[in-house]
Design brief:
mainly alpha, 0% strand
Length: 246
């Protein structure tokens, strides 16, 4: 039997050339090739880690917005209603002691807050960093507002000058700040804008006397609490609809 001495010819292509080049690198410089592979995997892992962290942050802000919307809507309704009642009674009687109705409002608001927390606990909803930030913000607001009330009635300082801290303008400024931060944390710029708009009513409260201050508080609560709470809830419903139908 006679064997042919003709060597088969395979036309060289760019792909084939590149493949042979890559194959040759495995033998000529295997350490460099392995390093390149590890570097590529490292880049992919870093990009994936950033995506996971970003998604976790978005989820945390959505969860915080869900509870914040309910709380701000309830607190806003309570605050607006209490302000109107105090304004009417204060103007009618001229007695500023009607402002102690706010104590009952604070108790009712705190009770609703505890109800929301227990409800989330039953649903096994874990507290996120964003929700903790909002909790710290509103806790700070409550503590500073309580200190302002104590200073207003000179419970710790015997001030013979008769000059007291303007309670309603101070409360409105604190409320605007807390509401604005809540809107930023929950990625709701419209609610932050409404909260900033409520600062105007702090000036009005400083100019008014008696029931006029409580009326300014009602309008400030409308812009800093009730409307932002409704906007946050509306955005949450939109996101939920998109997740279910897209």
């Amino acid at each position: 039997m006679q064997y042919s001495s003709v060597i088969p010819y395979y036309p060289a292509t760019n792909n084939g050339g590149n493949k042979r080049k890559r194959d040759s690198n495995l033998f000529t410089n295997p350490e460099k090739t392995a390093a390149n592979i590890m570097e590529d995997n490292g880049k992919l892992s870093a990009e994936r880690s950033i995506e996971i962290i970003s998604e976790a942050i978005r989820t945390s802000r959505r969860e915080a917005g869900r509870s914040a919307g309910n709380l701000m809507t309830a607190w806003g309704a309570l605050s607006v209603g209490t302000s109107i009642i105090v304004a009417i009674l204060w103007n009618h009687t001229g007695n500023e002691q009607w402002n102690w109705i706010w104590a009952a409002t604070a108790v009712a608001g705190y009770g609703y807050y505890q109800y929301i927390k227990k409800k989330e606990k039953r649903k096994h909803t874990a507290a996120t960093f964003a929700s903790k930030v909002l909790e710290w913000v509103w806790l700070t607001f409550l503590c500073v507002a309580c200190c302002a009330v104590l200073l207003r009635f000179n419970l710790f300082i015997d001030d013979a000058s008769g000059i007291n801290m303007p309670l309603y303008p101070t409360a409105i400024l604190l409320l605007s700040m807390a509401g604005g931060i809540t809107g930023l944390v929950t990625s709701n710029g419209a609610s932050s804008g409404c909260a900033v708009m409520s600062i105007y009513w702090a000036q009005i409260a400083a100019e008014k006397t008696a029931g006029g201050q409580a009326a300014a508080m009602a309008l400030a609560s409308l812009f800093a609490l009730l409307i932002p709470g409704l906007l946050i809830k509306y955005k949450e419903q939109i996101n939920k609809f998109r997740q279910e139908h897209l």
